[in-house]
Amino acid sequence: MKFFISVFIFSLILVAGCDKDQYAYKKFIGNSEVVYAGLAQEIGTRSGNLRVQVEWKKSIDPAVVSYTVYWNNNLDSAIVPAAAINADGIYRYIISGLPEYVQSFKMVTTNDRGDRSIGQAINGVRVFGPYYRSSLINQRLSSRKFFGTDSVRLYFLKTDSTKIFSKIRYTRKDGGLDSVYFKQDSVTIPSYQPGSKPAIHSYYRPTATAIDTFKTLAPDSLTAF
After folding, report:
1. Quick one: CATH architecture of 133-221?
2. What is the Cα gyration radius of the chain?
3. pTM to 2 decimal places
4. Fewer CB within 10 Å: N-end or C-end of the chain?
């Protein structure tokens, strides 16, 4: 019997506490209903060279008329009208002039009555730039195989997966300059001028979705050629 009485008293206290919290909330908002605009859908980012592209799909709330993107601790912002959607149904906005470190962004929608959304944080976005580029290296020559007197197959050491291609600039047998692009770890240079020294430049994409490609600071001469 004492157990049931205790449960009953506890329930009364709980209900009273809930009523008190509810009254405090209404008092805080002035006894009026708060309406938030609908959220943007599927927000994502694509990193670049001192810039970031923010992407999202439109809100399911048909009353949303604009999307505001904030950065730099909410000191900077840009408004994207709902009508500015791309043909593929995705909004894209590029924020340039960012410093090279991890950035945070915030998305806030606004509806046709001026109501705003609660906001959506986009944290941990890496921005790449000169420091990243200075860490990149050109592919290293491993070995070579000659074919005849003016053709050679070059083999290179493997690099990390962010390398997307390399470019070799060389002198042809007739004295003219030419170049060849390759994605794998070997390439054939036809009709090269014996005794010349080709130069290699490697290009990287820091992430699979990055909007910019970075090349090494300078080409390297293939001295072992």
Report:
1. Sandwich (2.60)
2. 30
3. 0.78
4. N
